[in-house]
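<purpose> Linking amino acid order to shape
<body> The protein record starts here
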Amino acid sequence: GFCVDFSSVLNRLDNVRPAPRGTGLAPVLLTTGGYHGTLAAVRALGRAGVPVVVADSDAFAVARWSCFTRSRVFAPPVRDKQYRFLDWLLAFGKRSRQRHVLLPTCDDTAWLYARHRDELSRHFHVSGCSGDAVYGLLNKRQLMAACREVGIDTPGTRSPSSEAELERVASAARYPVLIKPTSQVLFESRHKGKEVGDRAELLATYRRFREQRYGDALLAYDASVSWPLVQEYFSTADRSIYNLSGYIGRDPADSVLRASRKVLQEREIGVGICFERAQVHAELVQAVRALFARLGYHGIFEIEFIPAHGRFYLIDANPRFYGELAFDVARSMPLPLIAYFDALGDMQAVRALIAAATELPDAPRAHMYRVGFEMYLRTQRFSGALSVEQQRVWRDWQAAQGALSDAVHDGEDWVPSLIETAKRCYLQLRFPAELIQQTARHRFGFAR
């Protein structure tokens, strides 16, 4: 058989282009190295001379192999049931010669860092937000309630808390509807949600969602999180989501924002593939300021809205790095650096970065996840879900955008793209069930 020791290849590529040394800046520790937002942060911080440490349990997490990563350490999974990650993190901080900056790269670390801020701040530089403020954004039930209080539109949402109430919701619902987890924090399956078309499907799917487990640390903090939400469905959500992202400091004057429109994603509720530049709407900025003031939050963020019926409906909020972060960095909004100096308490540096964050005319008009884009077009075309004409539309879109920013590909830093492509191909071959189901459904009309 044909076998390659890929680990040995990666070891030889480990220091293809070392990050700059001797800058005197405090090191930063980043987790979840497989996330595109983490990779974008590694590159932005590393290019600025910040020593970057990537901690992950996955040896093939793409951010680990960026040439801008100074060092790599193995850590327990962030969602570990036994809370080993937090124990590991505290031990790492105690034995480190320098205090590292902690920046949240996922919902789990955003909540954990804020929840245990006092304990972590003995060994790390962390931001000043409370656990309750961060959780108010990460718990969709609390988020929707806060939005109603400050006058932000949200999809119609029901939140059952018993079987009897679930039955009533199922009987009164106007289908289709979405079933969504209340939060992604320490949520083991990471399932984003599912569209259901009738009462029987809602009850069966909802009960399956109830069986999916959260980490004990979160359940002890909020036991109601195990009850998912039933939310109004918007048919435009899979092809037009408005994203407002940026930084709002303790003083609202310390802020910088960008907007984009997600025009293609991998599934009905999934990872973004293609984004376009969009106008920042002043009324939404004011609404977000009011929401943050209500919850007591300040810092980096991404908030998603569905435009429908001439209004913007808020559907999600992320108080951490996000998938299309590289797009905003390419548009002169260096959020990783702003978050870094905010955690250090250096507001002079934060304000200097904000003042310099002017979007230039030649900034990319669009952003894509190229590996996912190619995989999407090929698999969807093979399954019959995408026609030849629809495929051509997306090829024309790509050609019309000119220079695009990319979630993974970078001419200076090519190893992560190599790894990402290999991993996606492997997973497609290793777990082809979804593609087979799609093909049967679209080509032969078989039910799921």
The first strand starts at residue 28 and ends at 30. The radius of gyration is 22 Å.
